[in-house]
Amino acid sequence: MPTAENHTDKMKALQAEQRKKTSDARDPGRGLVLVHTGNGKGKSSSAFGVIVRALGWKQKVGIVQFIKGKWITGEKQFFMKFDDQIDWHTMGEGFTWDTQDRDRDIAAAESAFARASEMMQSGEYDLIVLDEINIALRYDYLDIETVLDALKARSDRTSVILTGRDAKPELCDYADLVSEMTEVKHPFKAGIKAQRGIDF
Fold first, then answer.
1. In this structure, is residue 7 part of a structural domain?
2. d(C-alpha 110, C-alpha 178), whole Å
3. Is 82 within the bounds of a domain?
4. Which of 20, 27, 142, 196 is most buried, most CB within 10 Å of its CB?
């Protein structure tokens, strides 16, 4: 069993290592690109957590939702209290299996992305969340090269979070951070319906 002295020595070494990494780190001089993907729950929820952090620093936030329909959610009701700091655009029509109309889904995705591109290039936002854009990319409603070009053309001020499962490899290669949510257990598979305050 480690002694108190051994523990202290180990923690001092870890502290020195961490301080060295922090000292060597640099500011990139531009916003970051973050991808939240994977089959597990929590991709959009994590992005909303980052929004809370940005709001805490009085930053300007933009949200464009690509797939989610216009149903009432707890996060939108909460964030609308910050309407002076947030521009929220829900431009999808719901789950892809609900519309059953590819042309309509493509048109909705293209319209949402046009809005997102304008916002990214405007220089008005510190953070933009492109919620469920990875789904639009997965079904080829949007072209990955077009999305990458828009990310590269964004204002240096602006960080972007792209959510949704099955993120394209090209997007992951370009991003500064990629987090993959892994599903271990999900209540829906046990027949439990989505819960207000937990799921929406």
1. no
2. 24
3. yes
4. 142
Whether residue 131 contacts residue 97, with contact meaning beta carbons closer than 8 Å, is answered with: no
Q: Pick from 87, 68, 62: which is nearest to 164 by CA?
A: 68
Please write the tens of the pLDDT for every residue from 20-71.
Answer: 988 888 888 999 999 999 999 999 999 999 999 999 999 999 999 998 767 7
Coil, helix or strand at residue 180: strand
Number of domains forming the structure of the chain = 1
Distances (CA, A) of 134 to 1, 95, 98, 151, 163: 48, 13, 18, 14, 6
Domain that holds residue 144: 31-164
Contact between residue 69 and residue 183 where contact means Cβ atoms under 8 Å apart = no
Residue 76 located in a structural domain: yes
Q: Which helix (H) or strand (E) holds 152?
A: helix 144-152
Whole-model pTM?
0.89
CA atoms within 13 A on the CB side of 155: 15
pLDDT, tens digit (0-9, with 9 covering 90-100), for 111-150: 999 999 999 999 999 999 999 999 999 999 999 999 999 9
Domain CATH for 141: 3.40.50.300
138: amino acid identity, one letter: R
Of 30, 76, 37, 36, the residue nearest 161 (C-alpha): 36
Residue 198 counted as domain residue:
no
Query: 147 with 112: CB under 8 angstroms?
Result: no
